[in-house]
Structures are given as C-alpha cells and as structure tokens.
Amino acid sequence: MNSNVKVLLGFTVGAAAGALTGLLMAPQSGKKTRKMIGSESDKLKDTVGDMVADTLKEAKSKYNDLLEDYTDLSRKTISKAKEKAKMN
Question: What ranges do the domains of the chain cover?
C-alpha cells in the first residue's frame, strides 16, 4: 500500500470517526442529528472523492513519466545494440 493510499485511508477513518462522535454527542433531536449526519456524509464523500481523483491523477502522471523514461531508455539501448552489430 503506497503512502498516498495510507494517508487517504487514515484521513477518511479519522474524519468519519470525528464527525460521528461529534454528532452523537451533540444535544439535538434525532431528526436534526440524522440531517447533520447526511450533510456531513455528503461533505466527506466529496472530500474523499476529490482526494481519490487527485491521487489517481498523480499516479497517472507518474506512470506516463516512467513509461516515457523507459521508452527512451529502450530506444537508446536498441540504437547502441544496432551500432555494435554493425561493428562486428
């Protein structure tokens, strides 16, 4: 599990536990509490969704960079091999 996923998971669990604890400890009616839980759930969902999208974007960028690096390395290696083959 990479560090970004661990951070995302830790944030999600911590935020959910904190929000739930805060809502359950608040002296409000059940109807208000349920409404607040729904609202906080929506906010958490949006935050986690944004974090996942950012992490995926970063992973895709790193993948593309690595792919480009290895493609260049492969081309150079093939070129060197062709040069050596011509010399022999």
Answer: 3-87
